Amino acid sequence: MQTVQRPIPVRVLLALTTAVLLAHMLVLKNTPLALDNNGPVGTRVFTTRTLQIDPAPAMPEVQSAPAPKPPPRRAISSLAHKPSTPGLPPPPLDARPAEPVAEVVPPVVNTAAPASAPEAAEASTTPASEPAPQSAPTPAPLPKDATLEARAYTVPGSIRLKFNATGQRARMNYSALGELLWLLRDDHSYDARLEAGAFLIGSRVGSSTGRITADGLAPSRYSEKTKSELAAHFERDKGRITFSANTPDAVLLPGAQDRLSVFIQLAAMVAGDPAKYPLGTTIAIQTVSQRAAEPWVFAVEEQAKLYLPGGEQTTLKLTRVPRREFDQKAEIWLAPALAYLPARIRITEANGDFLDLQWRSTASP
Description:
About 15% of the residues lie in helices and about 35% in strands. By secondary structure, it is mainly beta. Strands 10-9-8-7-6-5-4-3-17-16-15-14-13-12-11 form a 15-stranded mixed beta sheet. It has a two-stranded antiparallel ribbon with strand order 1-2. A hairpin with a 2-residue loop joins strand 6 and strand 7 (about 215-225). The radius of gyration is 39 Å and the shape is elongated. The termini are far apart.
């Protein structure tokens, strides 16, 4: 029996097509247009800019004479090649005139304490048997340290001293390198740094900044740094010293120094008038650490010839005399050939630990 296929009526085809189109429209209507199900897709707009950098204006040519070589470096160079070192002052104060020191290390700042300079000038022009002329009454001066009499100071020019160092810490001996950097600025300010260190024991750095005044060095800040840094601040307008370690404030005395600047101050004092410091002289200076301030008394002990890693140096030894059982002892050997800066520094703690710095060479700062 043969099956005859009848054509599908046009009405049925139209109905089926319409149903399919409606189904597709419903599917598309309910399908999200983004892969992110959290919300609609945002459109990112990328904007480009062109930056035009103008060339730097040409600097005008300035005609000037070539800068002269800095005097401190000339002075250091001439000192290094002098055939002999300047002589030290004789033990008696008035045995013979002092050796001239003006050429030791230019440029220098030669000053005297202003409060007593007129008295020194008057004493030099008035005969001993004639009483000093009467003058109008003046206001009472501020209290001064007894050691701040009329003095001349010869401050060294910028210099870098390198040292070999030996020491002991916690019963362990070690060798290290050290350096003293002294920078004298044109505006009469200064920066000083003393550093010593070695592998395993680390380094220790002391830094001092301040100004040069009629009384020599006037520190404004002193710090010591090992693993961390502690500092002392000289507040001269308030007459006090404050400490970052939160230790009690200290009264700031005239002529006060820190544990680094005190070595430069002693050098400037002796260089300014070597004959004024014969053997046996004592010098008292308020000296500030990172935690406290106390008087240090130095005694001029002896003239000594040292044989150091850098060569032979004729020196004048000064020692800080400990006042109490646990005081630190400081010994310095001032060398005229180094502008009276220390050729050797030895610091000894009460427990026996020490650091001994011995001059190795001199370099430009």
